């Protein structure tokens, strides 16, 4: 137990993986039952719980595990102590577990989200305190993540109002804020800081390109999209600019050169989905202006599974190997699971494009995602319980 609690990434990644697998197992069961014309008996509408869990159920646990470990190094400050991060991460994980249990005992829904709200508020305070204690000359990435964390807390507030008063409008606000104000900015900020850094260490003649204006532009466009959607307006102008910027960034970061190093390629290929997703949003926006409703949730899942999901698997693999004192060598199994998750993304995107194949594609995507993270978890979850292979602390 002492080893397990000795570093934030251990407890954050372990609990995040466990909650991710449980969430995917529930959703895969729901998809299979729907294919047979049935559903899991619950007074909570599955789509509402699914939306909340996929945004807030497990991603924040991975984020805390990473930012409490790597973030203090960015800021040249001490890492949070175990008495601070252990109750926050365990409290948040318990909230996610209560939400899954709420399928059987609906009264746990409010309690689970309330526990998220309290735990995340404490998590934000700990991270803000690290920034305030820092005298580093460049705190831009840390501050960007702090702002996104704050918006994530706001989104949880809307979720709590939804759970308490069955307010659909609050749930919709939670989705927009959670996706565009919280998750996407965090993923973009970490990508901006880490992808050029990793690439410069792995590729010959590579010049890291991560200007401050790029980070500011990506964050501004993400938040602008949320503002347009919350106001009920078409966001085609924002989405077109966003798609172009992200696709250009992927090219400028040398996506194709990264393919010679699979561990690095995992991150670059995942980032490419962000540009593809915004391109799909742009097409959807243009069709909406013409009076056509097309693509459904395809752009959403290109972003959430394609970008967030594959980046999570790729980044967690790299971090887990490095912080376990293991060689940064990608196994064939990990690469296969990563490729499987790209296939899952394609299946889920196509499910909203090829109507007659929707049911089998939805089931394929749900089962594929579960299989990918279940097998990945069986390999890496034990790593978080063992001392580092190189004998170092952490």
- Mean pLDDT, as a whole number? 96
Number of helices: 14
Bin the helical content. Answer: over 70%
Largest sheet: none
Rg (C-alpha, Å): 20 Å
How many beta-strand elements?
A: 0
Beta-strand level of the residues, as a percent range?
A: under 5%
**Which parts are unreliable, with pLDDT below 50 for 5 consecutive residues or more?**
none
Q: Label the overall shape.
A: globular
Q: Termini separation (Å)?
A: 13 Å
Order of helices and strands: HHHHHHHHHHHHHH
Structural class: mainly alpha
Description:
This protein is mainly alpha-helical and 394 residues long. It has helices at 8-35, 46-57, 59-75, 82-101, 108-133, 140-165, 168-202, 212-230, 236-252, 255-258, 262-289, 298-323, 332-351, 358-380.
In short:
The chain is mainly α and 394 residues long. It has 14 helices and no strands.
Show the helix and strand layout.
Blueprint: H1 8-35, H2 46-57, H3 59-75, H4 82-101, H5 108-133, H6 140-165, H7 168-202, H8 212-230, H9 236-252, H10 255-258, H11 262-289, H12 298-323, H13 332-351, H14 358-380
Helix pairs in contact: 1-2, 1-3, 1-4, 1-14, 2-4, 2-7, 3-4, 3-5, 4-5, 5-6, 6-7, 7-8, 7-11, 8-9, 9-11, 11-12, 12-13, 13-14
Spell out the key features of this protein.
0% strand, single chain, 394 residues, mainly alpha, 14 helices
């Amino acid at each position: 137990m002492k080893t397990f609690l000795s570093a934030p990434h251990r407890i954050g990644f372990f609990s995040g993986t466990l909650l991710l697998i449980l969430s995917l197992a529930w959703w895969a069961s729901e998809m299979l039952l729907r294919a047979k014309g049935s559903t899991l008996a619950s007074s909570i509408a599955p789509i509402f719980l699914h939306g909340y869990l996929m945004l807030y159920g497990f991603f924040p646990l991975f984020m805390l595990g990473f930012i409490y470990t790597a973030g203090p190094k960015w800021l040249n400050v001490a890492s949070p102590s175990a008495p601070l991060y252990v109750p926050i991460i365990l409290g948040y994980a318990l909230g996610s577990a209560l939400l899954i249990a709420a399928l059987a005992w609906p009264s746990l829904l409010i309690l689970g989200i309330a526990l998220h709200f309290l735990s995340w508020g404490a998590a934000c305070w700990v991270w803000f305190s690290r920034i305030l204690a820092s005298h580093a000359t460049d705190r831009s990435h840390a501050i960007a993540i702090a702002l996104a964390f704050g918006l994530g807390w706001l989104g949880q507030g809307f979720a709590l109002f939804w759970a308490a008063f069955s307010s659909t409008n609050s749930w919709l606000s939670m989705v927009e804020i959670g996706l565009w104000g919280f998750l996407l900015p965090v993923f973009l900020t970490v990508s901006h800081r880490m992808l050029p850094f990793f690439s410069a260490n792995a590729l010959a003649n590579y010049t890291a390109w991560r200007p401050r204006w790029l980070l500011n532009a990506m964050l501004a466009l993400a938040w602008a999209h949320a503002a347009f959607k919350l106001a009920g307006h078409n966001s085609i102008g924002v989405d077109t600019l966003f798609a172009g910027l992200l696709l250009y960034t992927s090219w400028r970061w040398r996506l194709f050169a990264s393919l010679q190093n699979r561990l690095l390629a995992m991150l670059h290929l995942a980032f490419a989905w962000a540009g593809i997703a915004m391109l799909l949003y742009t097409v959807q926006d243009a069709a909406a202006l013409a009076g056509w409703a097309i693509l459904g949730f395809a752009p959403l899942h290109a972003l959430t599974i394609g970008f967030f999901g594959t980046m999570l698997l790729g980044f967690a693999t790299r971090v887990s190997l490095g912080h376990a004192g293991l060689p940064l060598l990608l196994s064939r199994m990990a690469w296969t699971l990563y490729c499987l998750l790209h296939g899952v993304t394609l299946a889920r995107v196509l499910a909203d494009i090829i109507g007659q194949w929707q049911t089998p594609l939805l089931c394929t995507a749900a089962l594929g995602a579960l299989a990918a993270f279940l097998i990945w978890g069986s390999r890496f979850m034990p790593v978080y319980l063992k001392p580092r292979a190189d004998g170092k602390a952490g």
